[in-house]
């Protein structure tokens, strides 16, 4: 298992380097411009000056290598410095700066993490918690009305675009009923029960939209996986032992069915960080997704590049996590 | 060699096509049947519809703007007085075309890669690396960037609408083939171990015929299922792109675009959101149900051969 | 085993159908048999003849839907198993009736340790605590001849070979000292040398524990070596029933006879050509109104197509369901 | 009384990315910064200059500006303090200049300091700005939201290439304004609190500000007008009926004001056909038919500007026939004929000029068809405009193909992209432009012959429509040496009229700013010449 | 053996087929599964060589390797005098018609999406240039030969019973008039009552077309019925090879003895008195075979030498080969007397054939 993990990590290095190059090329070659959003009243000489100060005049390769060094050497040092009060990083080790805000990209990401984790994370967890029982019951009572309804709801869940459901919820619950705020307050701090309640209220709608979407997908997986296992011979064995139906389904079948589902859930985690862009946009949860969109719109190459690469790392990482989980959960699998 | 020629159980039946069996099973899945019916309805509406409902979707009748449903405009008009029904029909044409074309592209790429990787051991490693690589690419940013990169080259080559159509179809296709490739590869790997492939090899069937004759027909069912999901996925992706301002230009109606444009009017003219919203959701839903039914119908275990 | 003793299990007119999309499948039709205490009843018959379905019907193991036990009585311990509630049935399963299935590779849950699966019935039926169950599990593993039991209990099924897994299955079935053990083709998936090990084990266990066993197989050789009495199934019915020696020496049903002739032997003269039973097994889409074997029977005559023969005694403890009297080479008059 | 009114919530649907206006020219950033940083003088809602950190506005009359127009002397108000309590001195003012003009800093406002050769600080409160040339309008440096005064002590280490690295300073600059930054989250939210050292002890009335960014105009408007989550929403560029519907909820009001922003169609005087390769859209290749004034005039006449306003902007726009619509003294009335659409006359005009309709309804002359490519940036209102105008133009027999380009590319100025507005690879294009402050001199200088973009200048240059006239150049030169306001106004009007009457620019809409504030927020005075938040110190809560 | 100059149709020498095992951090080749490890045998024209052994011992691999369905690791295979062990794709394709295969699972070996006619016609498509009607004629001819009703030509495999499917597979193998057919457990998946049908068919075809079979099976009784000579495999190696009666009558290798004794005899009278040799333990993994003799871990007669030295596969008595140290000893000490007696039944061979 360990060697397997190490091997996968080793393979991941060239993959990630290659991905970073692709991302770099694609992002850099895109004809967008960091000065495009400035008012037209700013003359072109000034724009040229600004571009130069952003390092846009360097050759492509130099910029790529610089970025690599910044990402893999300078940033970690700076982050260690910040965390432990060391001073490993010297002054000439420039961090990756966003073109728009002129601040380190890492700081931006750290700043946006809480709301993304809160909203999107919660919705993912809730989605999973809803999905599992639905999937289990749907499979156990295949073709029953519960299954039919569950199938319909989950299909509808990913058939309706989130920007549509989001706006609909806002109009109903914020504008008409006034129950929940339409704009997420990222500065809100939970200190007591009342403020916790405020937090819950502002999370309800985005979480609901996303959870529905996530639950829809995962419940389908759960159902399929349960169905696969319900017909297995060992289920018959368990019944022949005189175990109650509950134990048979919730212990024997579920444990086996969870193996592929857990990996699906793990694989879905990277999307927690990036996939909720539209929902973040609709509810003004200024999280990672919104950061990315703004950076793309503003031609902020370092931010786009870094974020995209982090997503790639997460995807690769959680792929690995999923595989390792698979190995841990399923004793038959031995990686070596 | 004195087998009884015809036994009781072997009542001579006319040769029965596989697909008839599939259809028989498919018919028993009510959801799938309804889905298929609705999808056919949508297809007919967007292809034949514009011939019947002949109002030009781009015609501006400024006096008739923001009208509710009426006889002249059954779905009402938009803020420039364009007929919503006509725009829905021509928008549907684009959306469905995008869905079908993107699905076709991703299927072709996915199947090609999947079959090659599964069939030729030597290519497997590198092709699967490639697939993993694509899977590891964060799609949305890349989508956005690719659209910016190539939009204009294609526009000049294929005209303003053709260009963006090709681009969107291309982008959605190129970024969604990986699942198909993986599934197909898995199936091909399993298939390769099946004895009839070995039998064909023992006959000396060359690889290309092996693939077309034995492998492809047998991976058809996962491909078909992928196909339905692919259509749904492409339609949704196109509308999401529209939402992020990257889809078709706004003078070019698609369902996604119409939906996005009308969300601002949700309160005043809710029907304007309802039409494209319903169209997208129902189409995707119907296609999903179709896929579900197809999956069951194509699974011999369920079909009970 | 004196015929007079009360049977532990008495099955009368069992009828099971499956409702499928294409219609009903009458898998078991009016099956009757009994099991004496301590005896080993062999069940033979070709694939699809309803052996497994019969046994699973007894203790409600068939998935319902599509299966439905239409009629019959299954008397066990003084009650009709088809009438008792699911809960009571569960209390019987694994405790008083043990079950061993054909495929040891898939019949054990791959994600639980062997120990866990072995302790499960102990804790459920005997109310043992964990340590007691563990001790008993070790005993059982020793009993079925798996060395180093203490350690191996913590292993997962995939770490066992096929033969050992089947031993584990047997251990699970024996865990609560059942009165009846039903073994559904327990050695079919195994190699001959391993099969020999299991058969040997079975003989030994029977001597030590003395339970009654139903042993399903389609290998006549296995039956010959292990069974006391045999029932032969065909097309969802029991067509012949006899003590093992009697059956092999004096088969009465044409199917049994044909079956015995089609198999090649390891010893003795080598037949230049194998006998064949032409044709195919019947389709079970309707309740039988005629002899299911008539299409393949060389003796079939008009009555066979009109009437489904009942089992009639043809010798001591021997009955067969056929209108043809093999001894007399003439139709039987019943 | 300071801090008595609690918190005010402001929403900008474009989120500020920095608080340092020198590092970003974006309006959102400038306005956010204006809560904290202040210039020596500002424009009020009417475009008049008012002293802010300075005692008075220096003029030639009061001796603040030398007769030769090469230097200006500012006097700071005495007793000014930074939020941290340290005194504001002339050194800070001088430093602000040094900061923006430092080598390698990429200052977005460096144009404000054009021609400044030196800034002298004879004493703590006096600042003398010296120009290299005569400056008839010497109010560039340290005036308006673009060029505020920053604290020397805080930014001393941040000169030039180091500027971007001073994240702390850029996000939390020390200021003299009514509020100071507590927490700045780039592209998200800013929390501010009242500046304890603000010069007016009574102000600001609010103890804190929550400044939220991001989203879209609809959501911002909704949050003020419908759900009352916010008190002030900026720049609600929404369809008029949508806005009207929101207002009808009764929670807030719309405020609007007009500045110099004009949505216009530029006519390409050069030939953009792709066959020309390198020479397309350069002065070497005159346009095949747009050089005919009759065509240009007909195009203008065919447009119903009133309707465009109604569809696209409602109260936030008014039809205009001038490219220089404001301030009042510069506004010409000579061209107002264009306000009325006249399709018939447009057709007649084309007929007269010999453009006759072909079988497909498209006019042509000598084999040249009136077929246009009409491009603009991607934006819902602009696309509606395109659709309408296309229909009108086709009515008079001009075939029109529409194209829209993502704003970041269109305005991106990337010399490698074929789709920038400077390259103008189209026959006509549409966008909006304005100028900072109230003085149109540099704005009108855009149409100098030498400003024509070309491959040689990397397509830099502001004369986008490639108009070239000696007479016009002469007027620009004259304005550069004219000091008196009235004369300057006459010159500017003359230039405007020249452009209008040659129909090289078709102004469409004078676009105003529309913002909204809740009914409980008092003191809002919309200012289009400076930051909208210019008087935030005077805002208060209405109970 | 004596009356006819028998020609060796298939000669296999030192055949090895290893499947690599990859692993470790860099996915390097860690070892190999020695599925077939140095196997040599000949098959005479017109005979049936039975190949028996336990599951996983490499029977199928051996059969497939002989037909070069795998790229073999080492060894030489001559079919009809022609070396194909290292033949390239072209040559191999040209030789395919001569050698064919019948597979274990009649369901899995037929493409479910092809009609019977297409399945049987596939080899004709590949190797002949027959016109359509000619091809159809040939297909009908083949269907007749295997006892399939011509009406079935347009049906799909799932519409047939197991025995019928196996007939389709046999018809396909016959299509090109092969000389040599590898039957890889052709009856294992069939019901007892159907097995006999297929075996009889195979026998009939053999006598009709003069076919040569390599008949792989784990059913020792059936092999006894059909085979002329029998090879016993254990863990990748052939441990004993002898004419049928010699092998069943007097098995030399302890494994063969155990195997034979383990087969239950369908006769209670014999079965109850038969001695069963119960082997201990399980078959070792072919990836990690024991040192010395492969059977040394389970052999009831194991000696020290068995754990050290892999016994040579030798002709112990004429026509009877075995790989066992027991026979080394016999050879050296008792000059093979008892063996010679036991083997005598092999002489019958000549009479039967
Ligand atoms: N779930 C089911 N649905 C429909 N028919 C079924 C089902 N299970 C079994 N049958 C049918 O019941 C009949 C008897 O099956 P059963 O499994 O008892 O045969 P068997 O004698 O055990 O055969 P084998 O030797 O192959 O195990 C068969 O015809 C089979 O097709
Ligand atoms: N493609 C392969 N890759 C790796 N190992 C293989 C492969 N094919 C077979 N083996 C291994 O080679 C060994 C021999 O397999 P083979 O299928 O020849 O056995 P067999 O004697 O035919 O068994 P059975 O009676 O079960 O068919 C087994 O251990 C198997 O796991
Ligand atoms: Mg069974
Ligand atoms: Mg095999
Ligand atoms: Ni024979």
From TrEMBL, chain A:
The family classification in the record reads: Belongs to the binding-protein-dependent transport system permease family.
Q: How does it sit in the membrane?
A: Multi-pass membrane protein
Cellular localization per UniProt: Cell membrane
Residue ranges crossing the lipid bilayer per the database entry = 9-30, 117-140, 152-176, 196-216, 258-278, 309-329
Quote the protein name from its UniProt record: Peptide/nickel transport system permease protein
Domain ABC transmembrane type-1, by residue range, is 113-322
- Which UniProt key words apply to this protein? Cell membrane, Membrane, Transmembrane, Transmembrane helix, Transport
Q: Name one Pfam family in it.
A: BPD_transp_1_N
Record's InterPro entries?
A: BPD_transp_1_N, MetI-like, MetI-like_sf
Automatic annotation (TrEMBL), chain B:
UniProt keyword list: Cell membrane, Membrane, Transmembrane, Transmembrane helix, Transport
Q: How does it sit in the membrane?
A: Multi-pass membrane protein
- Name its cellular compartments: Cell membrane
UniProt domain ABC transmembrane type-1: residue ranges: 92-291
The record's listing under InterPro entries reads:
BP-dependent_transpt_permease (IPR050366), MetI-like (IPR000515), MetI-like_sf (IPR035906), OppC_N (IPR025966)
The record's annotation in Pfam families points to: BPD_transp_1, OppC_N
**Which PROSITE patterns does the protein's record reference?**
ABC_TM1
The residue ranges crossing the membrane are 32-53, 94-120, 132-150, 162-184, 215-236, 273-291
Instruction: State the similarity comment.
Output: Belongs to the binding-protein-dependent transport system permease family.
Name this protein carries in UniProt? Peptide/nickel transport system permease protein
Species, as recorded:
Rhodovulum iodosum
UniProtKB/TrEMBL annotation, chain C:
Return the NCBIfam families for the record: oligo_HPY
Location in the cell reads: Cell inner membrane
Protein name from the UniProt record: Oligopeptide/dipeptide ABC transporter ATP-binding protein
MF GO annotations: ATP binding
Q: What UniProt keywords are attached to this protein's entry?
A: ATP-binding, Cell membrane, Membrane, Nucleotide-binding, Transport
PANTHER family assigned to the protein according to its UniProt record, in alphabetical order:
DIPEPTIDE TRANSPORT ATP-BINDING PROTEIN DPPD, OLIGOPEPTIDE TRANSPORT ATP-BINDING PROTEIN APPD
Provide the ABC transporter domain boundaries. 9-260
Its principal location?
Answer: membrane
Species of origin reads Rhodovulum iodosum
UniProtKB/TrEMBL annotation, chain E:
Q: Where is the ABC transporter domain?
A: 21-260
Quote the Pfam families the UniProt record gives.
ABC_tran, oligo_HPY
Q: Name the domain of life this protein comes from.
A: Bacteria
Keyword check for Chloroplast: no
Q: Please note every region of biased composition (Polar residues).
A: 343-353
**Single annotated GO MF:** ATP binding
Does the UniProt entry include the keyword Transport?
Answer: yes
The cross-references to InterPro entries, in alphabetical order and at most eight, read: AAA+_ATPase, ABC_transp_ATP-bind, ABC_transporter-like_ATP-bd, ABC_transporter-like_CS, Oligopep_ABC_C, P-loop_NTPase
Q: Where is this region: Disordered?
A: 333-353
As for subcellular location, the record says: Cell inner membrane
> What keywords does the record list, in alphabetical order?
ATP-binding, Nucleotide-binding, Transport
Q: How does it sit in the membrane?
A: Peripheral membrane protein
Family, per entry: Belongs to the ABC transporter superfamily.
User: What is this protein's name?
Assistant: Oligopeptide transport system ATP-binding protein
């Amino acid at each position: 298992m360990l060697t397997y993990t190490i091997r996968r990590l080793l393979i991941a290095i060239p993959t990630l380097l290659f991905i970073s190059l692709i991302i770099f090329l694609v992002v850099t070659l895109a004809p967008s411009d960091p000065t495009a959003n400035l008012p037209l009243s700013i003359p072109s000489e000034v724009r040229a000056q600004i571009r130069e100060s952003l390092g846009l005049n360097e050759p492509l390769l130099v910029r790529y290598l610089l970025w690599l060094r910044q990402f893999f050497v300078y940033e970690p040092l700076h982050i260690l410095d910040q965390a432990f009060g060391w001073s490993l990083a010297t002054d000439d080790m420039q961090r990756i700066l966003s073109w728009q805000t002129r601040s380190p990209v890492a700081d931006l990401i750290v700043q946006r993490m809480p709301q993304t984790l809160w909203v999107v994370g919660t919705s993912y967890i809730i989605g999973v918690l809803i999905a599992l029982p639905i999937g289990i019951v749907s499979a156990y009572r295949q073709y029953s009305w519960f299954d039919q309804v569950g199938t319909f709801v989950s299909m509808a869940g990913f058939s309706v675009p989130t920007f549509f459901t989001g706006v609909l919820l806002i109009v109903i619950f914020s504008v008409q009923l006034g129950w929940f705020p339409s704009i997420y307050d990222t500065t809100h701090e939970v200190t007591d029960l009342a403020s916790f309640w405020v937090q819950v209220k502002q999370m309800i709608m985005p979480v609901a939209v996303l959870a529905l979407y996530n639950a829809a997908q995962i419940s389908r997986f759960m159902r399929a996986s349960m169905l696969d296992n319900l017909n297995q011979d060992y289920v018959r064995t368990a019944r022949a032992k005189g175990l109650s139906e509950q134990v048979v389904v919730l212990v024997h079948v579920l444990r086996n069915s969870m193996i592929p589902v857990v990996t699906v859930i793990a694989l879905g985690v990277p999307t927690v960080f990036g996939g909720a862009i539209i929902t973040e946009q609709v509810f003004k949860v200024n999280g990672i997704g919104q950061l990315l969109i703004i950076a793309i719109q503003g031609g902020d190459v370092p931010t786009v590049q870094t974020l995209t690469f982090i997503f790639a790392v997460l995807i690769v990482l959680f792929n690995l996590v999923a595989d390792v989980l698979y190995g841990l959960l399923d004793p038959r699998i031995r990686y070596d | 060699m004195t087998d009884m020629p015809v036994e009781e159980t072997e009542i001579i039946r006319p040769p029965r096509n596989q697909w008839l069996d599939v259809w028989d099973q498919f018919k028993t899945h009510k959801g799938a049947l309804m889905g298929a019916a609705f999808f056919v309805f949508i297809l007919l509406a967007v292809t034949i519809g514009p011939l019947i409902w002949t109002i030009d979707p781009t015609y501006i009748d400024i006096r008739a703007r923001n009208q509710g449903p009426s006889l002249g405009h059954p779905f009402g008009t938009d803020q420039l007085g364009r007929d919503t029904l006509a725009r829905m029909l021509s928008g549907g044409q684009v959306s469905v075309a995008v869905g079908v074309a993107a699905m076709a592209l991703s299927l072709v790429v996915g199947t090609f890669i999947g079959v090659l990787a599964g069939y030729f051991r030597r290519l497997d490693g590198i092709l699967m690396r490639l697939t993993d690589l694509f899977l590891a690419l964060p799609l949305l940013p890349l989508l956005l960037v690719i659209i910016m990169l190539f939009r204009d080259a294609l526009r000049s080559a294929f005209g303003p609408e053709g260009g963006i159509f090709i681009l969107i179809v291309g982008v959605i296709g190129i970024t969604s083939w990986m699942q198909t490739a993986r599934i197909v590869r898995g199936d091909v790997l399993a298939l390769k171990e099946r004895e009839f492939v070995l039998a064909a090899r023992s006959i000396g069937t060359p690889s290309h015929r092996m693939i077309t004759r034995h492998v492809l027909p047998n991976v058809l069912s996962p491909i078909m299922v992928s196909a339905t999901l692919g259509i749904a996925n492409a339609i949704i992706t196109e509308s999401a792109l529209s939402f992020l301002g990257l889809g078709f230009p706004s003078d070019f109606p698609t369902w996604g675009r119409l939906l996005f444009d009308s969300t601002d009017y949700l309160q005043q003219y809710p029907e304007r959101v309802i039409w494209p919203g319903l169209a997208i959701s129902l189409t995707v839903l119907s296609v999903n149900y179709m896929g579900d039914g197809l999956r069951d119908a194509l699974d011999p275990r369920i079909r009970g051969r | 085993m004196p015929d007079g003793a009360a049977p532990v299990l008495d099955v009368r007119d069992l009828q099971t159908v499956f409702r499928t999309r294409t219609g009903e499948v009458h898998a078991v039709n009016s099956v009757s048999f009994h099991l004496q205490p301590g005896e080993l009843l062999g069940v033979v018959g070709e694939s699809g003849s309803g052996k497994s379905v019969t046994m699973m019907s007894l203790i409600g193991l068939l998935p319902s839907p599509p299966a439905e036990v239409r009629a019959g009585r299954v008397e066990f311990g003084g009650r009709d198993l088809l009438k008792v509630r699911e809960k009571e049935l569960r209390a019987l399963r694994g405790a008083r009736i043990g079950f061993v299935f054909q495929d040891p590779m898939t019949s054990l849950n791959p994600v639980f340790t062997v120990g866990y699966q072995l302790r499960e019935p102990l804790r459920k039926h005997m109310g043992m605590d964990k340590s007691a169950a563990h001790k008993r599990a070790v005993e059982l593993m020793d009993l079925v001849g798996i060395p180093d039991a203490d350690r191996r209990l913590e292993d997962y099924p995939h770490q066992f070979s096929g033969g050992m897994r089947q031993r584990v299955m047997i251990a699970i079935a024996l865990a609560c000292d059942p009165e009846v053990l039903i073994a559904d083709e327990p050695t079919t998936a195994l190699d001959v040398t391993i099969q020999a090990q299991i058969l040997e084990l079975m003989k030994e266990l029977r001597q030590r524990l003395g339970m009654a066993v139903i042993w399903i197989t389609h290998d006549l050789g296995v039956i010959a070596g292990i069974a006391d009495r045999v029932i032969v199934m065909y097309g969802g019915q029991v067509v012949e029933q006899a003590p093992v020696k009697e059956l092999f020496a004096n088969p009465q049903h044409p199917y049994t006879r044909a079956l015995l002739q089609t198999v090649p032997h390891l010893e003795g003269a080598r037949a230049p050509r194998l006998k064949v039973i032409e044709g195919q097994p019947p389709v079970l889409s309707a309740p039988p109104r005629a002899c299911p074997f008539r299409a393949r029977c060389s003796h079939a005559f008009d009555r066979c197509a009109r009437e489904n023969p009942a089992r009639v005694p043809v010798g001591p403890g021997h009955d067969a369901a056929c209108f043809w009297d093999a001894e007399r080479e003439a139709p039987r008059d019943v | 009384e300071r801090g008595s009114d609690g918190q005010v919530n402001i929403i900008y649907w474009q989120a500020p990315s920095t608080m340092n206006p020198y590092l970003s020219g974006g309006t959102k950033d400038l306005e956010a910064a204006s809560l904290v940083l202040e210039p020596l003088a500002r424009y009020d809602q009417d475009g008049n200059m008012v002293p802010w950190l300075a005692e008075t506005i220096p003029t030639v009359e009061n001796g603040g500006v030398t007769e030769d127009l090469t230097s200006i002397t500012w006097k700071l108000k005495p007793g000014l303090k930074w939020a941290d309590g340290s005194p504001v001195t002339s050194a800070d003012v001088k430093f602000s200049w040094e900061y923006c003009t430092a080598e390698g800093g990429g200052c977005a406002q460096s144009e404000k300091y054009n021609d400044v050769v030196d800034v002298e600080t004879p004493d703590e409160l006096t600042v003398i700005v010296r120009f290299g040339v005569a400056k008839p309008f010497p109010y560039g440096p340290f005036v308006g939201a673009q060029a505020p005064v920053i604290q020397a002590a805080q930014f001393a280490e941040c000169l030039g290439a180091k500027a971007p690295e001073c994240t702390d300073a850029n996000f939390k600059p020390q200021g003299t304004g009514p509020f100071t930054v507590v927490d700045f989250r780039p592209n998200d939210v800013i929390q501010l609190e009242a500046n304890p050292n603000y010069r007016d002890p009574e102000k600001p009335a609010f103890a804190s500000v929550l400044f939220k960014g991001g989203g879209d105009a609809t959501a911002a408007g909704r949050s003020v007008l419908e759900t009352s989550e916010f008190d002030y929403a900026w720049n609600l560029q929404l369809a008029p009926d949508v806005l009207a519907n929101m207002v009808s909820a009764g929670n807030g009001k719309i405020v609007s004001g007009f500045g110099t922003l004009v949505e216009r169609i530029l006519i390409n005087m050069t030939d953009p056909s792709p066959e020309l390769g390198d020479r397309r859209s350069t002065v070497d290749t005159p346009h095949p038919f747009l050089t005919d004034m009759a065509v240009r005039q007909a195009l203008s006449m065919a447009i119903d500007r009133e309707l465009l306003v109604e569809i696209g902007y409602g109260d936030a726009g008014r039809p205009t026939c001038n490219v220089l619509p404001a301030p009042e003294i510069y506004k010409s009335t000579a061209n107002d004929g264009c306000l009325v659409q006249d399709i018939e006359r447009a057709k007649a005009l084309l007929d007269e000029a010999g453009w006759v309709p072909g079988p497909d309804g498209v006019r042509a002359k000598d084999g040249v068809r009136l077929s246009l490519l009409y491009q603009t940036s991607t934006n819902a209102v602009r696309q509606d405009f395109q659709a309408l105008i296309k229909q009108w133009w086709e009515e008079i027999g001009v075939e029109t193909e529409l194209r829209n380009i993502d704003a970041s590319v269109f305005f991106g100025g990337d010399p490698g992209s074929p789709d920038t507005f400077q390259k103008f690879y189209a026959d006509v294009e549409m966008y909006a432009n304005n100028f900072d402050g109230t003085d149109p001199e540099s704005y009108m200088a855009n149409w100098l012959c030498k400003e024509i973009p070309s491959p040689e200048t990397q397509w830099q240059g502001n004369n986008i429509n490639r108009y070239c006239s000696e007479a016009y150049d002469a007027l620009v030169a004259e304005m550069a040496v004219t000091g008196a306001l009235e004369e300057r106004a006459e010159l500017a009007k003359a230039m405007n009229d020249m452009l209008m009457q040659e129909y090289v620019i078709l102004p469409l809409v004078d676009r105003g700013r529309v913002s909204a504030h809740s009914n409980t927020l008092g003191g809002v005075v919309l200012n289009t010449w400076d930051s909208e938040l210019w008087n935030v110190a005077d805002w208060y809560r209405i109970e | 053996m004596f009356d006819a100059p028998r020609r060796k149709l298939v000669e296999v020498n030192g055949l090895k087929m290893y499947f690599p095992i990859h692993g470790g951090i860099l996915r390097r080749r860690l070892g190999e599964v020695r599925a077939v490890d140095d196997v040599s045998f000949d098959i005479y024209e017109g005979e049936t060589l039975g190949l028996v052994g336990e599951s996983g011992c490499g029977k199928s691999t051996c059969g497939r390797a002989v037909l070069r369905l795998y790229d073999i690791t080492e060894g030489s295979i001559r079919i009809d005098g022609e070396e194909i062990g290292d033949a390239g794709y072209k040559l191999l394709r040209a030789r395919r018609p001569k050698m064919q295969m019948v597979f274990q699972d009649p369901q899995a070996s037929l493409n479910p999406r092809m009609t019977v006619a297409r399945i049987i016609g596939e080899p004709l498509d590949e190797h002949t240039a027959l016109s359509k009607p000619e091809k159809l004629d040939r297909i009908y001819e083949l269907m007749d030969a295997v006892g399939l009703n011509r009406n079935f030509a347009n049906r799909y495999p799932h519409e047939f019973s197991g025995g019928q499917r196996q007939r389709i597979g046999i018809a396909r193998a016959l299509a090109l008039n092969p000389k040599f057919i590898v039957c890889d457990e052709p009856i294992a998946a069939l019901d007892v009552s159907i097995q006999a049908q297929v075996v009889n068919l195979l026998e009939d075809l053999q006598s009709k077309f003069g076919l040569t079979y390599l008949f792989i099976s784990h059913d020792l009784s059936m092999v006894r019925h059909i085979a002329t000579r029998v090879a016993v495999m254990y863990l990748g190696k052939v441990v004993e090879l002898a004419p049928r009666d010699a092998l069943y009558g007097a098995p030399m290798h302890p494994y063969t003895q155990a195997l034979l004794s383990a087969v239950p005899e369908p006769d209670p009278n014999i079965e109850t008195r038969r001695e069963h040799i119960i082997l201990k333990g399980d078959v070792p993994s072919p990836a990690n075979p024991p040192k010395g003799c492969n059977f040394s871990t389970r052999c009831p007669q194991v000696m020290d030498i068995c754990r050290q030295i892999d016994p040579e596969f030798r002709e112990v008595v004429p026509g009877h080969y075995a790989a066992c140290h027991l026979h080394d000893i016999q050879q050296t000490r008792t000059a093979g007397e008892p063996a010679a007696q036991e083997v005598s039944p092999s002489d019958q061979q000549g009479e039967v054939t």
